[in-house]
Amino acid sequence: MSVTSRPAHYGFAEHWLPRLVLAPSFLLVLVFLYGFIAWNGALSFTASRLLPNYEWVGLAQYEALFASERWWVAVHNLFIFGVLFIGGAMAVGIVLAILLDQKIRLEGALRTIYLYPLALSFIVTGTAWGWMLNPGLGLEKLMHDWGYAGFSFDWLVNPDRSIYTIVIAGIWQSSGFVMALFLAGLRGIDDSIIKAAQIDGASLPRIYWRIILPAMRPVFFSTLMILAHIAIKSFDLVMALTGGGPGFSSDLPATFMYQMAFTRGQMGLGAASAMMMLVTVSAVVVPYLYSELRRSRHV
Amino acid sequence: MSKPWRGVLYAVLLIAALYYLLPLYVMLSTSLKTMDEIRAGNLLSLPGAISFDAWHKAWGTACTGIECSGLSGYFWNSVRMVIPAVLISTALGALNGYVLSKWRFRGSELAFAMLLFGLYIPFQVLLLPMAQTLGWFGLARSMAGLVFVHVVCGIAGTTLFFRNFYVGIPDELIKAARLDGAGFWRIFLRIVLPMSLPILMVTLIWQFTQIWNDFLFGLVFSSGESQPITVGLNNLANTSTSVKEYNVNMAAALIAALPTIAVYVLAGKYFVRGLAAGAVKG
Amino acid sequence: MGALAIKNVTKRFGDTHILKGIDIHVDSGEFLILVGPSGCGKSTLMNIIAGLESPSGGEVHIADRIVNDVAPKDRDIAMVFQSYALYPTMNVRQNIAFGLETRGVPKKEQDEVIARVAKMLQMDHLLDRKPGQLSGGQRQRVAMGRALARNPKLFLFDEPLSNLDAKLRVEMRTEIKQLHHRLKTTIVYVTHDQIEAMTLGDKIAVMKDGVIQQFGSPQQIYDTPANLFVAGFIGSPSMNFIPAHLASEGGVIGVSLQSGDAACFAPLLDSQRYAAYVGKRVIVGVRPEQWDLAADGGGLACKINLTEPTGPDTIVFTQINGIEVQARLHPRDARSPGSVLHLRPDMSKAVLFDPETEIRIG
Asked: Pfam families recorded for this chain (chain A) (predicted)?
């Protein structure tokens, strides 16, 4: 039957044990996640600098944030990074998934290779790519050795290009993940639909374009959500690859927040930037979760 | 599909495989070279004579800021951090998932929704209040504090994993056990837990990877004696006091990556399953 | 002694009323069937008897004791589930022992019980297997064994056969009936299968929309269904519901039937009880087997549209009073589609319903 009901519980133990067992986790989350969000919100309305200082200053920190060139660089970078990283990882991942779905020998081995970067820490990824992209001995030297004497690659130390190195490393790390999710989705599609389309005389690209990819909408959206979430939280990769530099040319909101709150003694400003991140995430996540929960309730 | 097309297909797939493997090859070969060789050769050149000096240095004597005792201390810090954090967050997740799927009560759905949103909170909003609170409890920059943070931030994910798995266990099993006279704990220990091996593996591996690879909390909530390997690696690689020793950096990066790569290779099945489960999460 | 009494039990979730005042009384040793289409509330009622859900109102008595506030484990019941609900990580022996163990039965006694049950259900050779290694029928057997291990006052069966294939289902049905004869236990059995209901039950409660439509012996329900729903639900193929006018011809009350150009007047037996309905529209319920071939050329000349041979009988389809009617005939009497048969309803067994209230008349 579609109506769900809670089981009947009898006696003290059955009534209170479930609540008691859930209580510690619930309280931890309530206090240390939701309580701290409120606390951080409060800090963003104060004049806190090196130490918390509960002198109320209204929206002054937000005004300072929006007047800060560095913040806008970070937001602009997040936009560039977000679009290129999500688009790139999606494109690479989807193409690899479709290619792997063609009854490939060695599929297991290839899948393992495409996916292993995800097991690495972003710090490891950043360190490795930092070495490969470094202007002296890395890619540039390799191309010179191969005879392209005029090749120059200085993105890592070029303020106009540094953010793109983060995109490159990010796509390397996460595209295998997209591949795995889409491959699982492709495998979940009912074979008989494809057979029916083949009998109708549709070509393979047409079958993918018209039938299979549209059926992957849910996978597409959940992958988009995850990548967007990774992009907004990106911190480690920047710290390891460029440290936000040169200057602050490759800052993202997450590194901006860290710098302000923990190294530059601008606690109020850091709190305000964290709130902006939360608002951005919520704007994306809350509608998504709402629709997910509604859907699961109707299943 | 025609033969030539399949050839192209395999070529593309193999080139992609090279793209993913290249950084690993570069890391490994660089770590086995001497600095002279690095300057003389290029990224792809093979090491002439294999030298483990860079590995020794990365483990024992490389400078990470002022200290010059390599990554070994950081490595063991990470081990001591990751074990309790993974075990505690997984145990809590299993219990919460059990309650939220099999012992629902008025308000338990709301509690679940709150946990679910907790997965998406950017941790930046927690950093300042958490730093201060840990200070009040005397846990600032301590291993215990770091473990605590990882547990709090891990509960939502582990709970979701177990809850989604337990929803798939038929309610009739629980009903049958209740008619057989078993209570809350006996049903959990005798019926539910023995069925949980797959999700237990997934959660343990997922949490291990997440916590081992964490950098943000390590950077903010620990110092000196308690810093994890990711912080050590970053300090080592970005230390500006001396000439960059890329071979040592690569050896250090590999040391930091080894445990998670080992888990990935040994238990890849569970790792991928965790990813799929984590897709709901993020 | 009353083994089970349900008094005005209601259940609602928010504004949805699942059970709307259920009253049932079962004597010790009786086999009660709760039957109805899915969503009728029978499983909810079963769960309330077991104590797995609590009623919104009313009382549940087991062995003359109110058990509303008694936990399932203290109600002295055992249950067989539709999915069998065998513990997958335990072998058959452990599955049966689990309930004994939680009740603190000594190990030696447990072994005796397991031996007794295994012998009764002929499953000694399965004791060391895990549920995953058993066939559907074997799992069903183990699930029954687990319920039999204790000697409860009341057995609950929740659609225990619906996951079995047709042949096994018939075998297990017989086995359950034999078991009941042997053990003389009280059984409440939920099913949506009207054949199971008819073959197994001492008493049947037909449910729909959270209301008991009729409560009685299988024969009572078959012969004198309380309303159109019960009449249509019990019996296969279903009872024919023929709309007709009730008329009086020369003091005899009956209905006129028409098929194509042919027409006849079918008088009702003991017809004065329908006097109040003369001149009104009624629905005449005639079961497929309640049609005879009128050898004398009387009856109603019906054109055959379709035949369905089942082996022992042949179902012929025809049109009477504008609706499709099925008649179950001996194969030798059936004719091929297109030909004409003279059919006569057995009006002594026909039942009449009020088309407005759908309740049986008379």
From this structure: BPD_transp_1
Q: What is the mean pLDDT of residues C230-242?
A: 93
Same domain? C148 vs C297:
no
Partner A contacted by C194 (CB < 8 A): no
In the predicted model, is pLDDT for residue A59 greater than 60? yes
Give A-chain residues touching B95 at CB under 8 angstroms.
21-22, 25
Query: What ipTM does this complex have?
Result: 0.88
* Chain A hits for B156, Cβ within 8 Å: 29, 33
Chain A positions in Cβ-Cβ contact with residue C16 (cut-off 8 Å) = 3
pTM over 0.90: no
CA nearest neighbour of A240 among B215, C178, B122: B215
- Mutual orientation of helices A217-233 and A69-100 as an angle, nearest 10°? 140
Q: Would you state the pLDDT for residue B240?
A: 58
Instruction: Flag if A120 and B92 touch (Cβ within 8 Å).
Output: no
| CATH at C273 | 2.40.50.140
Among the partner residues A3, A8, A14, nearest to C16 by beta-carbon distance = A3
Rounded to the nearest angstrom, the minimum Cα separation between C2 and chain A is 25
Q: What is the mean pLDDT of chain C?
A: 91
**Same domain for C211 and C278?**
no
Q: Do A120 and B257 touch (CB under 8 A)?
A: yes
Instruction: Tell whether B130 lies on the interface with A, counting CB pairs under 8 A.
Output: yes
Which chain C residues have a beta carbon less than 8 Å from that of B175? 47, 50, 52, 72, 79, 81, 85
User: Residue C200 corresponds to which tokens in the numbers above?
Assistant: 């197994």
Residue-wise pLDDT for C10-69, tens only, equals 998 888 899 999 999 999 999 999 999 988 999 999 999 999 989 999 999 998 899 999
| Contact assignment for A36 to B130 by CB distance below 8 Å | yes
Please indicate if any CB of chain A lies within 8 Å of the CB of C54: yes
CA dist C320 and C257 (Å) reads 7
Cβ count near A118 (within 10 Å) = 20
Domains plus CATH for chain A?
1-43 (no CATH), 62-298 (1.10.3720.10)
Residue B62, token pair as written in the block: 């490389």
**CB neighbours of B274 closer than 8 A, spacing ≥ 6?**
B161, B202, B203, B205, B206
CA dist B34 and B52 (Å) reads: 9
